Amino acid sequence: MSGEAASGSQWAESGLERPCAHAAPEVLVLRLDPDLPLPAYALPGDAGADIVSAVDIDLGPGERASIPTGIALAVPAGYAAFVHPRSGLAARHGLSLVNAPGTIDSGYRGEVMVIVLNTDRQDRVRLRRGDRIAQLVIQRVERAAFRAAPELPPSVRGSGGHGSTGGFLAGAPGAAR
Hints:
The protein is mainly beta. The protein has helices at 3-14, 87-93, and strands at 28-31, 49-52, 57-59, 64-74, 79-85, 95-97, 102-104, 111-118, 125-127, 132-140. The chain is globular and about 55 Å long.
């Protein structure tokens, strides 16, 4: 059964309305290392396409590194690629991305680099060439027109910043424990 037929029957059987299909943006990939795979989605419905390390690397606790992926992209105008951490690496090894998500603008043509950080306080993280290290999410983006204003219109939130809406009380003085 074709993927199209399979997905169509899944929607029919679920009783849910099938989402509007649209053409996926085409992202051109230059293989700087022909032995490494193109970015690829692991499962149907995944938002992020896995990208891999082009090198072996060993990160001690607290160390960071910029890891080459062996690919360069041509993201279409009106889109950007965002480099996100892989949740399994974060949960099991404490590996995170320093600038998550990393932004790849449509005009950038250099090698995609992934800036990783070993947040574990004791264990080293060993990545091998070909290991999936991050995910690329391709999203439509808008360019805003910025205009100076003498004042901003009021809002419910106002100037309340970091933590102003609550949600974490465990460390607050007088919070129930």
